Recover the amino acids of this structure.
């Protein structure tokens, strides 16, 4: 068994510890033999991949490729992934462009099999993919210890991508709804029950926008271009997650005492 991340506390106390030790823990994690074998194999062989068929036919390469975009669960779905990669991103009607989950669009853009000459032949391509792969595998390992910490680790990256997109204000909220990890963060931080997901999608956006405005003083996703706003969103997420977890089996007085001790 490789290195297992250490998360000694929940909530903000655990997050502060993880941030302080993150680099050292990540280095220890990626040095594990299993991760190193995946990384070395990808770096050595990806340059020979010229088509989507080449990629999906090699289990080990596909494992890293999907893992770099948080799509690990799609490893058995070779036909589906091949369709995403073959249709690419240039055609606005392509499969990836029409999907709500934009991780698939990011995947096909990165590999560029619809560009004539794929990005796999570029000298800096392996490093870019492998950096993402190692970061996301570390997040998974953190999540095995504490699910909330995994969401916090990916928050800035995933949310910043939506903020920087060309979507309209509504479109950015729709992107949040289509990204399960971000949706969970926002629902928790904004204190919106999961049952709200049963509402019409436009009504869901209305509820989230109004709640964001009441808490942050701004109802639009663009506000999270400010790192301080992302930090505050994450703080609310972790504090309310801890309260929710504690409230399942503790009195209000015990919850207050536990939170004070953690702070």
């Amino acid at each position: 068994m490789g290195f297992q991340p250490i998360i000694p506390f929940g909530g903000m106390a655990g997050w502060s510890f993880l941030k302080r030790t993150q680099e050292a823990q990540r280095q220890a994690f990626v040095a594990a033999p299993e991760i190193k074998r995946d990384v070395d194999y990808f770096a050595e062989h990806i340059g020979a991949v010229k088509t989507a068929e080449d990629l999906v036919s090699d289990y080990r390469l596909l494992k890293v490729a999907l893992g770099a975009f948080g799509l690990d669960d799609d490893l058995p779905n070779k036909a589906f992934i091949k369709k995403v990669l073959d249709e690419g991103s240039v055609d606005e009607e392509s499969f990836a462009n029409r999907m709500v989950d934009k991780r698939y669009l990011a995947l096909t853009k990165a590999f560029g099999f619809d560009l004539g000459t794929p990005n796999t032949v570029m000298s800096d391509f392996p490093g870019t993919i492998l950096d993402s792969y190692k970061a996301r595998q570390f997040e998974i390992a953190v999540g095995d210890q504490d699910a909330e910490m995994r969401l916090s680790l990916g928050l800035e990256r995933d949310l910043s991508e939506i903020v920087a997109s060309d979507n309209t204000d509504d479109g950015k909220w729709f992107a949040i709804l289509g990204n399960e990890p971000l949706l969970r963060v926002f629902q928790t931080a904004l204190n919106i029950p999961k049952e709200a997901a049963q509402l019409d999608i436009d009504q869901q956006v209305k509820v989230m926008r109004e709640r964001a405005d009441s808490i942050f003083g701004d109802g639009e996703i663009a506000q999270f271009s400010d790192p301080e706003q992302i930090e505050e969103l994450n703080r609310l997420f972790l504090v309310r997650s801890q309260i929710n977890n504690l409230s399942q089996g503790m009195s209000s007085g015990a919850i207050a005492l536990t939170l004070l001790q953690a702070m």
Summary: The chain has two domains: 32-132, 146-262. Residues 146-262 form one domain.
